[in-house]
Each structure stands twice: as C-alpha cells, then as structure tokens.
Amino acid sequence: MKLVVGLVAAAGVLAMVRAAAARDVFPFPVFSRVLANGLTVVVVPYDSPGIVTYYSIVRAGSRDEVEPGHSGFAHFFEHMMFRGTERYSTEAYNDLFKALGSDANAYTSDDLTVYHALLGTEGLERVVDAESDRFMNLAYAEADFKQEAKAVLGEYNKNYSNPIRKLFERLREIAYDRHTYKHTTMGFYDDILDMPNQYDYSLSFFERFYTPSNTVILVVGDVDAEAAHALVERYYGRWNRAPYSHTVPEEPAQTAQRSAHIDWDNPTLPYLAVAFKAPAFSTATRDCAALDVLARLVFDETGELYQRLVIREQKVEYLRTYAPDRRDPGLFTVYARIKDEAHVAEVQGAIFAAVDRAAREETPAERLAAVKSHLRYSLAGSLDTARGVAGHLSHFLSLTGDAQTINEAYRRYDEVTAGDVKRVAGTYLTPERSTVVTLTGVHGE
Amino acid sequence: MRTTIAACARLLLVVMTVTTTSARSEADPPEVLLPLATSPLVTFRIQFRVGAIDDPAGKRGLTHLTASMLAEAGTARRPYEEVVERLFPMAADIGAQVDMEVTTIVGEVHVDNLDAYYALLMEALLEPGFHEEDFARLRANQVNYLRKTLRGSDDEQFGKEVLGAALYAGHPYGSPVRGLAGDVESITLADVRAHYQRHFTRGNVTIGLAGGYPASLLERLRADLARLGAGAPARVELPQPRPIGQVGVVAVEKACNSTAISIGFPISVTRADADFYPLMIANSCLGEHRTFNGRLMIRMRQVRGLNYGDYSYIENFIQEGGSTFPLTNIPRRQQFFSIWIRPVAHEHRHFALRLALFELEKLAREGLDEADFEATREFLVNYSRLWAQSQSRRLGYLMDSAFYGTDDFLETLPERLTTVTLEQVNAAIRRHLGYQNLRIAVITQDADGFLSALADNVPSPITYETGAMPADVLAEDALVAAYRLNVNRADSQVLEADDTFE
Fold it and tell me: Phi-psi bin for A253: left (phi > 0), alpha (psi -120 to 50), beta?
C-alpha cells in the first residue's frame, strides 16, 4: 500500500508542473471534514514512511488584537499554550514529546497561530490526546504566566538587534491608522512590558479564540485517512466552546504618501522600505495573483531593476519584496539594503519608476511565462517532505479554512495576463498608497 | 570510495531502485550516491576539500570569496544576469556552502529541467567567468557582512564568531569563514583565480548525487569533472588549539539592549570517535537545540524566564534555515563544546552566565542518572529519524559520514545509541566536559564593567518582579548569585565592536 501511495505521490508532483491550467496544482489527495462542533479536520496521506506531521492551526493572530494595550497577545498566548493542563503539566507535556522524539514547536503571525509536531506515526494518538487536552483544558498559574511574559520580552530583545526588524516595525506603525496590522506580531514594546499584568485578559483570550470553529487540525504523513479522522474526532468531538465574534477595525483609504526615518545606533548599511497598501487575499479575482507575479517580474533577480542596481551599478546589496497573503488588506513591501547613503533617494526613485513603468508597459509573454514556471517549480520543490506539504496547506487553511484554496490560488496564477499586471500596478502601487521608511547607521554609510 | 546506500530509502518518501550506473574508474572522484528513481527532484552536492583553513595568511576569506565567484557570478560563456535568467524559470539556484574544511556546491532541480540546469552548474564549476564586476560586487558583500551585518545587526551570531576566534586563536580555525574585513579588501581577482586552480581540482572533489537522476547523468558528471584542474593540495595540518587556563573572557562593547553570551572549549571528540555517542546523550540532556528538553532551557527560560532559549553543542552547529535541524556538510576534524545563551537583559547577564556554568558543573560532577539517561537516549533515537526528511539532507549526512570515515551516521545512530550505557555516558562526561577551563564571549554594553564584575566575582543576586518563586529555586538562586569563576585576567580582553574581525 505504501508503495502505491509513494508512486502516486511522486507521479503527482511530476504531473503537477505539466498540468494544464485547469488542473489542480496540489498533487496529493486531501480528505477534509467538519465535525459537529465546527472543528475542521484535514488529512493528507503522504508517503513519509513511519513519519507524520500534526498541525493545529488557530485562525487568530496579531490581527485579532483589537483592544488597545493588548498587542502581541496572540504570540504571547502561543507561549502560554505550553504551560500545562491538569492532566499534562508543562513537565509531563515536555516529557511526552521528548519520549516521542518529536520536533514540536509553534509560531504566530498576523492571521494565524500554528502548533506543529513532526514525529513517528506510533506516537500520533498520544499527541492527539495531549494536543486536544490543552486546546480544551489549558490551565496555568499566574506565576507561570508572569515568567513566560519575561521569555517573550527576551524574544523581543533577541530579535531587535536586527535593523530589519525595526524597519518593518516602524513601517507598519505609520502605514496603518486603525487596523491591527499597525503592530507586528511581537506587539508594541510597551504592551510587551505590561504583559505580566494581563493574566485575566489571557484567560478571556483563550475562551474567545481557541474554539473549534476557529481551529483546523491538519494531519500529513504516513496515515490512513479514515483512521486519522476517527482518531481526531474521538479526542476533539467533545470540545465545545462557543464561537466568538469581533470586528477588526477597517483601515481607511490612504490618500497621501507617508514616510519616516530611523537612526540606528550601530554600524549598518542603509535600508529602504517602500510599502504599498495591497488588497486582502482572495481568489475571487486575479488581483492578488497578479501582484505576486508583478513582484517577481519587477523586483526579482531577473527584473531590470535588480539587474541594474544590484548586478551592474552595484549600488544595492540586495533588493527584495515581502508581500504575504493576508486576510485583510496588507502591505506589498519592496526593501533594499543600499551600499551608500548617497544612493538612498535614487533607489527610492527607481522603485517608484519601476512600478510606474509596470503600469504603463506590456510585459513580454516570455517573461510572464518564466514567472509562472518559477512559481510552479518553487511549489514542486517544496513538497518533498510531509512538513513542506503541511506548511503550504496551513498557510491557505489559515486564510480561508479550505484546503482547496491552494489549487484556486495557483489557477489564478495561470490565468494572470500582461493586462492584469498593468492593471494591478496602476491600481495598487501608486505613490499616494505608499509608505517609505529609511534607516541609517551611526557611521552614516 | 563509493557509497551507494540502499537501506536509507525507507526513510524517504519515495521508493528506491537499484542503481545501474557503470563502474567508476580509479581516476574518477569519490562518489556518494543516493538514487531514488521515483523522486521528481535531483540533488547535487559537489564537495571540494577546501575551506577557510586553506585561506593564506593576510587573505582570510579567500575560499569563501572564491566559492561565491562560482555560485553567484557569471561564467566564461555568459554574464551573471543571464545565468539568473536561465535559472529563474526552473526555480533553481546554485549555492556555495563554505566551512572550515570543505566547500560544497549545492543545487536541486526538478527532473523536467535537469539538462538545462546541469549545463549551468557545469559552466559555473568548470568555466567560471571571474568577471571583474562580479568580483567587485561579491567582495564588497563579504566586507559588508563582516563590518556591518555581524557588528551591527546580529548579536547572537556575532557572539558565536567571537567565541570561535577566541577558542582557535593562532589555529587554522581562528577566523570567521568569511574572513577578516581588511584581508578580504586586499584579495585580488588574481588571488581568486589562483585559489580556484589550486584547490577546486579533480583530485580534491567528491560527487554527491541524489534523487531521480538517470544513470547517464553520473557518467556525464564523471567525464565533466575530469575537466577540473589536476592536483590535490596537501591537507592543512591542524595543531592542538591553545590550552585554556581557567576562564578567558572576550567582552565586546557595543550599543545593544541585551547581552548575547557564548561559552565553549575545544574537545577531542568527533563523530569518528566512540565517545561521541555517549557525549551526544549527555549534551542532549544539558541543552538539545531548540527544544524544552535541556536542563539549561528548563532552568534558565522555563523556570526563571531569563531569555528566549539556552542550548549546548558538542560539534560545530548551524541550524538549517528555519528548521530545528543541523545543517549538513560542515564537518570538522576538530570540534568544540559550546553553550549558547540567547540575549538576556543586561541586569541579568551575570546571573545568567553563572547559572549556565552552575548547570555545566553539575553535569560534569554528577553526570546523568538512570532516568535522565534512559529518557534522553529514547529521545535521540526517535528524534534523529526526523533529520532525514529530504533527499538533500540525507545526501548531506552520507557525505559527512564519508568525511568522518564512519558508517552511515543516521542509519547506524539508533543502534549506536541503544548500545551506549550510563557508565559510558558518565565516563565520557568526565573525559571531555570540564567546567573550570573555558572561554566566554559576550556582546554587551559596559563591557569593562562586566569583565570586572566577572573577575571580581561580584555577587549577582536576582529578584523577580513577577510573583512568588518556589523556595528551591530561590535557594538555588542564592548559590548561583555567588558562583565563583576563576577569570584569567591576562587571558581576557575587552574589544570595541569595530575592532573585531578587521
């Protein structure tokens, strides 16, 4: 049986990149169900002999931190989820994962919090038991809560010797007026300092967001789909917590360019970030897909801008984009590390000129084809492990709750036309929708 | 040497078929092969036995720059712009990974694009362009890494590099792999050409190949790599690292909001030694990387909330990307033990450092008990299965096994661990893990003040603003706050960040 699945899996990857636009890009069978309590369970049998990966995806992240003073709480709460239940103390939980030899951790982002474990299949039921227990019955002492708040402060401190972190923190802060994307997932520094005092709030956070209908369980690996579904239902079926509804503030339309500068008190090359307000993730139109394509056409290493600034003129060390899919309108950010402060303004001008040209000029067909090929082979190359598969699926599950979104998203890539690229450049990447942040070091280079 | 591993296929997602390649001749380079007929990917790891230890004095960083000129530059046939344009639709690249002893050119491509990719890879290896404009770009990047990124943007990596330089002063491992900034600035394109011709030779290369490649590919690779230059330079002899008397401290002064700390000392154990395996168990119990298993993590972060993480290692360790697992193909003939304390608030730096050494001493004096031993061994047997989840990693481990002259490390590890006894673990601890003679690197503010406090054994009591702490922890805190270090002032120094790796 494993042999057959293995061959099917490998053949599926082969077929994927040769598929016609109408075909599904995701090559593995997906078995999805929604339990009576609202919990979505997705199982993907995958030929990783003896190995399975188990993801608990909470569709809550820093986006949901709508109350002033509580930024960073989704991430902090991720830490608290390791602080035990009546049945599994922190020590017992750690001992279990240690005994299983599992690689287990968690991460939080704007729209999601993910708990993941990679382990031998023989330990799956014990993991389902422990994970379901903490999602249903988390119980931690206030003293533990306060200790963990200090670990979060330590995480903030370790991150912020890197100027890129500061650059993106400031960028969000001034790009948004009302929406919670104004703060990073770590949260505002003052809120992090105040976290030890927010024990009661943490209890309500659990009740609000850790609910069955706000959670997806994803199992990828050497499992039988039916048996895996039965296992998850057995342990989570009795989880009942009412859905919570809240409103994330809508960001008003930006009408004028914004800017800020950061003086970094250590040596660094200058940095520049130019961010544009982008649309919320959707596969209903081709806008998001066209922006992803544009990012690669205009700013990747084959784009004229990169080749001129990085390779030929060598004024820029690197030029990158960061335009992640987000549930609400996020940022399409172009950022660069520039070799000399004297060139910062020129590079900024070149970035705006490049998007202006993209809005006016037609992309040659072969360039468009190269980007689409790149996107498909990138995906194919990253589906070579159970965790790779789970990583992609969890991203789309967090956005829509539906595993099929991955196929929809890649269909939209296939459909993008040169006209779409021009259109989205002219619609979204305009100066009045932009925010510019620069950062320079003590030596002013 | 030819290592074709069949058994490992069970660890992978695809089913392996028997290789049908023709026999290699004596003149062919060593090969490490992992054919996986149904894999849609082909992985190349072309490894040269050249590393930072081969950098000439005054030209530290030359191997790294030479490797960059192969992987991130134009070829004799086309400029770099065209190389990236050709690679882009395949979503493939050519990477160079350099460490002290080996340089590995790494690439992975979908079988659909194998021929086109292979042609570019061979151009890069056999017909490098050595264009002046690429050289200027890559040399500037390397200097900027040393002067800007390391000193100004990444205190944790900075601390590790400072520790490495302190452990191996006067030794071929004594500079960062990217070299010294002034040295790199003095490197010429002629230096790079000469280094390539001397070290990137057919007598110095190992072929690593994995995945769904056709049998004919190996034959092409053998024939093509025969076009590399002749010769195999003598291997650099490694002296013993200078002995450490008591505690040597390098404190680097820079503006920062927390203190990064690394601690270590050389050890005489590598994967080639029987003691490595019991020591793996001991180390995992003390500080398994990025887990909550280790005593350091539990006592420093979980119990006291001092920082984000605390780990220990018995060999050179670099985390692979965003994963938890070790990067492969950074093998070394000499290894070191280290503790990585992630940044702690300045006011807790002294206490945190003492607590780490307190735990190290406890391990060194008392060893493991039966329960710790059994639990840690079971963990490692299960956990190490996860290190082979991609064909590229599996190939990397096989090549490292070839470097150390051991059987397949991952395949034999469970059995090796299972046969280790508690007595062997504790004997290995006694032989290899001391706590009195070590080096400490810190990146901090008021470095002078910190060094003096360390040397004078100034008490460093800790208070908790966050509520009641168990009595046993408070009692331990009192011991830790007064924990004595025998700092050797003559072997300690304060450096300005700007003066490092210059």
Answer: beta
User: Total structural domains in chain A?
Assistant: 2
- pTM attached to this predicted model: 0.94
Pick the CATH number of B2-225 from 3.30.1030.10, 3.40.50.2000, 3.30.830.10, 3.40.630.10: 3.30.830.10
First-to-last C-alpha distance (Å) of chain A: 62
* CATH code: domain of residue A107: 3.30.830.10
Class of domain B247-499: alpha beta
Chain A residues in contact with B466 (beta carbon < 8 A): 143, 146-147, 149-150, 196
Q: Please count the residue pairs, one from chain A and one from chain B, whose beta carbons lie less than 8 angstroms apart.
A: 235
Q: How far apart are CA A261 and CA A271, in angstroms?
A: 10
Query: Are A232 and A293 in a shared domain?
Result: no
pLDDT, averaged in runs of 10, over chain A (445 residues): 32 38 81 97 96 97 95 94 95 95 97 98 98 97 88 85 93 97 95 93 94 98 98 97 94 98 93 98 98 98 97 98 98 98 98 98 96 97 96 97 96 97 98 98 62
Nearest to A262 by CA among A187, A172, A163: A163
CB contact burial A354-367 (16+ within 10 A = b; e otherwise): bbeebbeeebeeeb
ipTM given for this complex: 0.93
pLDDT tens-digit profile of A227-273?
A: 999 999 999 999 999 999 999 999 999 999 999 999 998 889 999 99
Query: What are the start and end residues of each CATH 3.30.830.10 domain in chain B?
Result: 2-225, 247-499
A295 & A225 share domain: no
Tens of pLDDT, residues B279-295: 999 999 999 999 999 99
First to last CA, chain B: 41
Cα-based torsion angle of the residue sequence B399, B405, B411, B414 in order, rounded to the nearest 10 degrees: -130
Q: Looking at the complex, does the CB of residue A226 fall below 8 Å from at least one CB of chain B?
A: no
Assess A151–B contact: CB distance below 8 Å, yes or no.
yes
Distance CA B385, CA B12 (A): 10
* B-proximal residues of A, 90-119, CB under 8 Å: 90, 94-95, 97-103, 105, 118-119
In this complex, which of A149, A158, A164 lies closest to B156 when CB atoms are compared? A158
Q: Which domain holds residue A297?
A: 258-440
Same structural domain, A48 and A188: yes
